[in-house]
Write a structure and sequence with these properties.
The complex is a heterodimer.
Chain A (H helix, E strand, L loop, with lengths): L3 E2 L4 E5 L4 E3 L2 E2 L7 E7 L6 E7 L7 E2 L2 E6 L4 E6 L8 E8 L8 E3 L3 E6 L1
Parallel strand pairs in A: 2-12
Antiparallel strand pairs in A: 1-4, 3-9, 5-6, 5-10, 7-8, 8-9, 10-11, 10-12
Chain B lengths: L3 E4 L2 E4 L5 E7 L5 E8 L3 E8 L6 E2 L6 E5 L5 E5 L8 E8 L9 E2 L3 E5 L1
The chains are: A mainly beta, B mainly beta.
């Protein structure tokens, strides 16, 4: 079974609109961390936001917020006021401390296209 | 502060050739990782090193070996390259322990095996 599922291969949004990128995860470990990374067409991996499994509040970083629903095992990324520069591939990832040290398990990604 | 550096950026190999991908970080991180990225597959862990002197297999270790040369450097070796190893390879590093400790990635190596 996939540990991280991103069901949207591609998403399209207009500038200034908000967009939600979906991510569901599967773990039996009570302690885990969830990450979102951005990969522009240039190829580098850019860390966006983190949510710990024991965090009571949803994480926010500027225009990025994470809609964390623990019971549903979902960790959706919300980008408010989209910009052209947000066009990229977005990866959801999970860290399970008891598995493979502190390595990340990645989803297959969602391509976001922002148009003017 | 260069962060995580990888060499080379691009490489073309013939089937059966060997090569070593180099990775170095200057952030004094304990943990280092090698991932491969294939189209439609996301990133998959090849090997990781939780600390200097230790290495462990990840999800897709077959056909690869690694060396944690010191705290800064973590190399990935392909002994006999195969077309299935055509991929983009990323090295990453992070602090260990609880907390955010996000992984910092190098720019990647695009490898083609013909």
């Amino acid at each position: 079974a996939q540990k991280i599922t991103q069901t949207q291969p591609g998403m399209f949004v207009q500038e200034k609109e908000a967009v939600t990128l979906d991510c569901t995860y599967d773990t039996s470990d009570p302690s885990y961390g969830l990450f979102w990374y951005k990969q522009p067409s240039s190829g580098e991996m850019i860390f966006l936001i983190y949510q710990g499994s024991y965090d009571q509040q949803n994480a926010t970083e500027g225009r990025y917020s994470l809609n964390f629903q623990k019971a549903r095992k979902s960790a959706n990324l919300v980008i408010s006021a989209s910009q052209l520069g947000d066009s990229a591939m977005y990866f959801c990832a999970m860290r399970e401390p008891r598995q493979a040290g502190t390595a990340l398990i990645f989803g297959k990604g969602t391509t976001l296209s922002v148009s003017s | 502060n260069a962060g995580v550096t990888q060499t080379p950026k691009f490489q073309v190999l013939k089937t059966g050739q060997s090569m070593t991908l180099q990775c170095a970080q200057d952030m004094n991180h304990n943990s280092m990782y090698w991932y491969r990225q294939d189209p439609g597959m996301g990133l998959r862990l090849i090997y990781y090193s939780a600390s200097e002197g230790t290495t462990d297999k990840g999800e897709v270790p077959n056909g690869y070996n690694v060396s944690r040369l010191n705290k800064r450097e973590f190399s990935l070796r392909l002994e006999s390259a195969a077309p299935s190893q055509t991929s983009v390879y990323f090295c990453a590093s992070s602090d260990a322990g609880t907390g955010v400790n996000e992984q910092y990635f190098g720019p990647g190596t695009r490898l083609t095996v013909t």
